[in-house]
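Lab notebook page, bench 4
Experiment: in silico fold of construct C2
Operator: M.H.
Input chain length: 457 residues
Purpose: comparison with the prior construct
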Amino acid sequence: MKKITDIIEKQKVFFKEGKLKDIRFRKEMLKKLKASVLYHSKSIEEALKKDLGKSQFESYATETGLILEEIDLHLKYLSKWTKPRKVKSPWVHFISRSFIYSEPFGRVLIYGTWNYPVQINLIPLVGAISAGNCAIIKPSEFTPNSTELLARIIGDIFPEDYVSVITGEVEESQFLLSQKFDFIFFTGSSKTGRLILEGAAKNLTPVCLELGGKSPCIVDESANIDLAARRIMWGKFVNAGQTCISPDYLLVQKDVKDMLMTKMKEYILTFFGENPAHSVDYGRIINLSNLNRLAALLSEGKIITGGKINAEDRYLSPTIIDDIKPQDPIMQEEIFGPILPVMTYSKFDEIKEYINSKPKPLALYYFSQNRENKMKAIREIPSGTMCINETVVQFGNSYLPFGGVGNSGFGKYHGKFSFDTFSHLKSVLYKSTIVDLPFRYPPYTGAKLKIMKLFLG
């Protein structure tokens, strides 16, 4: 592990040099990263195809394109974001001016995960660079092709005393966690997130945890059923269901269930053909271990479509399961695969009570044309993010904060929210030397308390 400790020490020295305070330097680094992503775009497609079976379109739409969009947004607004922000000063601080300054934390550690192995590592890196930090990235060992490529992309353009990729497995991840960093950004499961939080606490290191959970998708009786079916099937089966904000289970109002089920089956056929195993647009499960875990979830309920497995190809067909009960194993953990369990409901209060009895989800999807129902869902069902009449696309809007709540994580990123997450917001108050009100100083006799109450109200 000596190499890791050497890099950490080098980054400590480099950060102290002060070069990262220069906004022009940060922009140059972002431009270099963008150029490198563009240069390696074909290699990114190939690596994602090998690791996850991703199509060319999906690789660009869910990985490369999002990275480029994020970089462009930071380049456009970075000068504005870094300016001190003036805020009001209460009368009690007469005469003064108050500002918020954004300062880099210093050395940050970014833990990536395997389901979107390029953008989930590089989009946080954009925020870290933009805010003026050094960074170490630890990608997942489950995606060897993408991890090797990331190391090459970063190694070709950045010195390791600025940005470095550390490859390896659990041992390297644990060793990194034992080191002192100024900030840790983690994407992954709630189980691993707890371990990250425990490790960070030993050094009092602030963290941002982007976790997952069971994200419900609700379709009420007023919904546009054809549109709902199309968008749910796309959101569920993009990346073969291996998306932290994928619709995890479906709650459909009983009067429109049959129509929705019919439409969903039609759209699976439209999207992937009679045999999705032959579709270039349908991905693969990351490894045999996860495939076996998913296969075990097929034992409950009634398979309406799908359920076909080819272990040699890491293939599990797009699957819909009906007659699911809340106590079934498939409803106890995040599925993270191409299986959609379906349950029905009659009234809004039923789904509200059920969802709110569970840990708060990372995402909530509600399909409806009833304004009152939509507003009730927004107000009464907590979640990290939410879409009305859509699925998954909230992640691609860099003007929206992305993050969880409760069990699904804490902290936000994307766009300005990434810049703020990787920055310490320092409060600065400038006080005039012309006036110095005497009533604040002891002894507190006479009318001083009355005067103070007038100021503080």
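Observations: The chain has two domains: 2-211+407-426, 216-403. The mean pLDDT is 96.
Next step: discuss at group meeting.
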